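We emphasize that the prediction below concerns an isolated chain of 146 residues; any contacts that depend on oligomerization or on bound cofactors are therefore not represented. The input was used exactly as deposited, without trimming of termini.
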Amino acid sequence: MTKKIKPFDFLAAALFAAVIAIPGATSHAQTTAAVTAQPVTLAAPSVADLAAAELAKKVFLQLARGTVDRSLLTPEMSKALSSESIASLAPHLKVFGDPASLTLTEKSKFAGGTNYKFAVKFPEEQHKIEMYLDLGGLVGGYFIRP
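Result of the prediction step, given as a token string:
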């Protein structure tokens, strides 16, 4: 019996591979301690939050078109997203259409950067994008969830 792969199973597998490197961490325990979230109370979005939303949208659109500007990604994320995986991912993302809006729902600061969670409205449905930015503003993790 052949199991049909659902688009979100594929997306989770394709986008999961990002590695977050914490400067100065030499062990798993140090990395775990360094990435303990410090939730931030959301008020009006800051300039940085708006820029993160634009970056999340930009990366989505690029993934949906099958090409990504690798200068936006950490070296680990760039390595994890092969050209082949991006090409096979693109048709699955393209069916959503262009994001109509992204609303910041959660933001957590870590020792090595910030994790953003957005509610994303597409023409026919709504999903979530979670994106990790390192301290230099590069994408170190990117997830699309139902």
